[in-house]
Design goal:
By secondary structure, this protein is α/β, with parallel strands linked by helices. The protein is 43% helix and 15% strand. The protein is globular. The protein binds S-adenosylmethionine (SAM), 5-amino-D-isoleucine and iron/sulfur cluster.
């Protein structure tokens, strides 16, 4: 395995002439570990209520927007549709909804149990929760706990995640891992970070033992303090994906459809990603996060559309068994 130092990472991030070689090495590394298979995740953003005020997020508390909270029955119906369409995992995501905190996540735990009964892997992305709640997610059979640090630059974190605690967020992930959950970490790209910050974040994700690591380019959102910020050119996100592949050949790395929609898939897979995320069934009223509606009701963020692109690239969708045995090996 290629040992990259922090200086090596910064060098790759700064020097475009190294990029083609970087992507080539990342693709070869993915092929060596995963062959031609790519994993695909269904995304169920079941509550867009949130008690936090992250400066980058459309769903921040103070943004005057329409919000929804799907019922247990609606969530299970949508999960069934996604599983029937072929996805390998269901990502249950929510804002830090005070109603769920008030009921100690009773509904979320029962939803996880129901989906697990069908033998489908589940990821939970509820934001920061207490240790008891993580215990309950683990008991209910959740496989992954996703919580993105966004940056490992503490000053930048304060500006992004207003009134939230950097260490609390980090400890939450570490506790979930202790409890036997796989963890996903992630960073935002284009929010004022420099190459040093990115390199530090990539190394920290390894230190906490994340089994899935991601980078998402920042997308400005109406009604937020960062609405006038520019979205970054995508080459930095692609370089980060490739560096993650070289640093951690066996990890899962998303190509999210939630940044540039279905048209953004090929470049991210070409950079070494091996999971298509943010697959949302059309006409269910479900939203994305960074791209709330892009390609959703047109049926562009579906298993079928993503698989067609993968096959054109000489790749294929992994089977449910292949995914389950893979994450089984990570635990
Ligand atoms: N509420 C939970 C939380 O914050 O951990 C889970 C959902 S949250 C919406 C998921 C992630 O979406 C954030 O951690 C952030 O990385 C990403 N995200 C949110 N707004 C974004 C934006 N405007 N551009 C790019 N990514 C964004
Ligand atoms: C994605 N839209 O995979 C989803 C979301 C949260 N666990 C995931 C950001 O890009
Ligand atoms: Fe809420 Fe998550 Fe958005 Fe922050 S990123 S405002 S916690 S939904």
């Amino acid at each position: 395995m290629l040992q990259l130092t922090k200086d090596d990472i910064i060098n790759y991030l700064k020097n475009d002439e190294l990029t083609d070689e970087l992507f080539k090495m990342a693709r070869e590394t993915r092929k060596r570990i995963f062959g031609d298979k790519i994993f695909l995740y269904g995304f169920v953003y079941f509550s867009t209520w949130c008690r936090n005020n992250c400066s980058f997020c459309y769903y921040r508390r103070d943004n005057d927007i329409e919000r929804y909270r799907k019922s247990k029955e609606e969530v299970l119906d949508i999960a069934d549709r996604l599983v029937a369409s072929g996805v390998n995992l269901i990502d249950l995501t929510m804002g830090e909804d005070a109603q769920y905190h008030a009921e100690d996540f009773e509904t979320a735990v029962s939803i996880i149990r129901e989906i697990k009964k069908q033998g489908v892997p589940v990821m939970v992305s509820p934001g920061v929760v207490g240790k008891k709640v993580i215990d309950r997610f683990a008991e209910a059979g959740a496989d992954f706990y996703a919580l993105y640090q966004e940056t490992y630059n503490r000053e930048l974190f304060k500006k992004l995640r207003i009134a939230q605690d950097f260490d609390e967020r980090l400890e939450c992930k570490k506790y979930a891992k202790q409890k036997g959950l796989l963890i996903e970490d992630g960073i935002l790209v284009g929010i004022g970070e420099n190459e040093e910050d990115i390199a530090e974040a990539l190394l920290q994700m390894g230190n906490i033992g994340a089994s899935q690591v991601r980078a998402m380019s920042f997308v400005p959102q109406d009604g937020t303090p960062m609405e006038e910020f520019k979205t970054p050119k995508r080459d930095m996100e692609f370089k980060i994906i490739a560096l993650m592949r070289l640093l951690y050949p066996k990890v899962l790395i998303p190509a999210s459809l939630d940044v540039d929609g279905i048209l953004g898939l090929e470049k991210r897979v070409d950079a070494g990603a091996n999971v298509v995320t943010s697959i949302i069934p059309p006409k269910t009223g479900l939203m994305g996060v960074a791209q709330g509606t892009m390609d959703v009701d047109e049926g562009g963020r579906t298993f079928k559309e993503a698989t067609a692109i993968l096959e054109k690239m000489g790749l294929r969708a992994a089977t449910k068994e292949e995914y389950k045995s893979y994450i089984g090996g990570l635990k």
